[in-house]
Amino acid sequence: MSIIIKSILNADREARYLNAGELSAIQQFYEGGVSRLNLAVTLTENEKEIVEKASLKFWERCPNTPSNSGNRMYRNSCLRDQSWYIRLITYAVVVGDVEPLAAIGTIGVKEMYESLEIPLPNLVEAIRCLKEVSLDLFTLEDATEVAPYFDYLIQSLMP
C-alpha cells in the first residue's frame, strides 16, 4: 500500500487530519516520483534483454531444470514468467511499496509452482538472476532503490 493510502487510512481511522510527518512523507514520495518512474522505464525498456541474459545465467547455474530440458513449452513458460516478474517489480518501484508484489506476485504462487512440479529453489534462483542482470543497468544509488523489491520477491518465494 502506498504511503499516500497508508497515511490517509491511518488519519481517517483516527478521525483526524494528516499530521506534519505524514504530509512530509507524502511530499517526499511525490518528489521521488520522477526517479521511481525513470527506474521503471529502465526496467521496462530493457525487459527483453534482462530476461534473455538472466535466463542464460539461470540455465548455467541450474542446467537440470524443466525449462532447460529441451521442451519448448517449458522454456517459453519460464521466459514468460521472468518477464511477468520484471513487470511486477516495475509496479512496486512506481508505487514505492512491495504491495503489488505481495498482492499479485506471491499469494498462491508457491502452491501453483509446486503443483506444476517447478522446483521452488530454481524459481528463487531465476529471480536472483533477474536481479543481478537488472541491477547492472543502474547506478549504485538506483540499484539500491530497486534491489529491495527483488529481495522481497526472493524471500517470499523461498521454500
UniProtKB/TrEMBL annotation:
Sequence positions bearing N4-methylasparagine: N71
Localization (cell): Cellular thylakoid membrane
Alphabetical keyword list: Antenna complex, Bile pigment, Chromophore, Electron transport, Membrane, Methylation, Photosynthesis, Phycobilisome, Thylakoid, Transport
InterPro entries given in the database record: Globin-like_sf, Phycobilisome_asu/bsu, Phycobilisome_asu/bsu_sf
Keyword Transport: yes
A Pfam family that the UniProt record links to this protein: Phycobilisome
Source organism superkingdom: Bacteria
CC annotations in GO: phycobilisome; plasma membrane-derived thylakoid membrane
Membrane-protein topology: Peripheral membrane protein
GO biological process: photosynthesis
Primary location class: membrane
Residue sites binding (2R,3E)-phycocyanobilin per the record: N71, C78
Family to which this protein belongs: Belongs to the phycobiliprotein family.
Entry protein name: Allophycocyanin
Originating species: Fischerella muscicola CCMEE 5323
Lineage: Bacteria, Bacillati, Cyanobacteriota, Cyanophyceae, Nostocales
